[in-house]
Amino acid sequence: MSKYDDEAINTARDYYNSEDADNFYFHVWGGEDLHVGIYKDDDEPIFDASRRTVQRMAERLATLSKDSRVLDVGGGYGGSMRYLARTIGCHCTVLNLSEVENERDRKMNAEQGLDHLIDVVDGAFENIEFPDDSFDIVWSQDAILHSAEREKVLTEVARVLKPGGEFVMTDPMAADDCPEGVLDPILERIHLPSLGNPSFYIATAEKLGMKDMGFENHSHQLPRHYGRVRAELTRMTPELEGKVSEAYIERMKTGLGNWVNGGNNGHLAWGIFLFRKQ
User: Fold this and answer.
1) Measuring CA to CA, which residue among 16, 92, 4, 5 is closest to residue 248?
2) Percent with pLDDT over 90 in the chain
3) Model's pTM, two decimal places?
């Protein structure tokens, strides 16, 4: 049943709530960090590389402390906020569309003794239900690509961020010089007409009063990550019987291959953005 008026929001919500997707991301992708990793080598465990991304994003934040209030928009299973709560001791809020992921998130927070520091909120980042100037830091990893209204998402981020606060994000993107049409197989898979690109995010953030503090380009890690996930999915396929359908696995292998090809051809971009609200 549709919960939101926006078709793209409902498509993303229904996908991540599905049993196939939930079991794939939980068992194959690592169940903590549902985002692109920064790898030392092609055989490194997905969890280790994904956690390195979290660590690097945290290192870039000049204002992060135990007194910070952090909002993660599109937080998946909430692994990044558990990392911050555990290592920094700050209060974190995860805003995420999938109720299924959010239930796993809440369970892991309780199991790890971190639920007193982390709130998990069901909702869409196109309409963040918090007052203006509520958070010291807004965080997002590989989630905004799923929105059909990316400028609206950034507008909401700027609104809830306190003056002087920081916004750190990653997103799989089209390269700024990406030729027309070459990403159609990827776009068809995610049911969207386009991806963002680095120039779009920087220009939009600056228009909204957030100063660009530098884009750290790790684009070569994107195909590396999707290739690593595809290899792990292939290795684990026998173990996934009864958890993930054969049809989903085959579609996912094809989809991951499209990301690998797009990245290796130089048509995709990925890295860590940092903005500061003026």
Assistant:
1) 16
2) 85
3) 0.94
